[in-house]
Design goal:
One of its GO terms (biological process) is tRNA processing. By secondary structure, the chain is an alpha+beta fold. Helix content is about 50%, strand content about 10%. The protein contains eight helices and six strands, in the order αβαββααααααβββ.
Length: about 220
């Protein structure tokens, strides 16, 4: 679907940027704005996960910085116009088949109408707070089921999500929960179906093998 294609394209872009920066000690500065932050919060909520972008993070091996998270998209466009810079516009940004575009063009304007004001600042602030919370509770990825089962649920969910991300798997709340049950409620059940975030349409499975989680090719 459109979302899988978008996720795969995003992963490929960051892998290419990571390769270009390899060995140079460089960071990748991206132009995500407060509007993007608000959209990220809503996208995460639709997947059952409260998420936000942090000012610095590692994505597909690239060291990413986001200096414009506190700036509105309209202000960046205005600055480009004032400086005589031509900003490239991704044609996908007009396609509401993509969930993020639909949120941007339809849902967020409707939310603003409902509250009688601009909804983006509050959403962006909540996303920023979520990013700080996630950073404070960050747990290193592990595949050891006994270790995961012994963790408090918030840390277990984050450890599993971190492992899935490192393996190029699309993370959803349901997926993380089902993988967690392989550790906390083990009774010999079959593997959990997940989707690749790197290759469109690729189906994968997470299984428990020898007391550890393992990522397998789907059938």
């Amino acid at each position: 679907g459109a979302e899988s294609m978008e996720a795969a394209a995003r992963a490929a872009r960051y892998r290419a940027l990571a390769a270009a920066c390899a060995g140079e000690g460089l960071e990748v500065a991206v132009a995500h704005t407060a509007d993007d932050q608000a959209e990220t919060l809503l996208l995460g909520a639709l997947r059952g996960r409260v998420t936000g972008m942090s000012e610095r993070s590692e994505v597909e091996g690239a060291r990413v910085v986001r200096p414009l998270l506190g700036v509105r998209r309209a202000d960046t466009e205005g600055a480009c116009a004032e400086l005589g810079l031509s900003a490239w516009r991704d044609p996908q940004n007009a396609d509401t088949n993509f969930r993020r575009v639909a949120l941007r063009r339809e849902v967020i304007p409707q939310l603003s109408r409902i509250i009688g004001g601009d909804v983006v600042p509050a959403l962006a602030q909540a996303a920023g707070d979520a990013a700080l919370d996630n950073a404070a509770l960050r747990t290193p990825p592990t595949t050891d089921c006994a270790e995961l089962a012994a963790m408090a649920e918030p840390r277990r969910r984050r450890a599993i999500a971190a492992w899935l991300v490192s393996e190029g798997v699309e993370v959803t709340r349901r997926g993380v929960g089902d993988v967690g049950k392989l550790c906390t409620h083990w009774h010999g059940q079959g593997p959990v179906a997940v989707r690749s975030a790197r290759q469109v349409g690729q189906r994968l499975e997470v299984a428990r093998i020898g007391g550890k989680l393992a990522l397998l090719s789907g059938h």
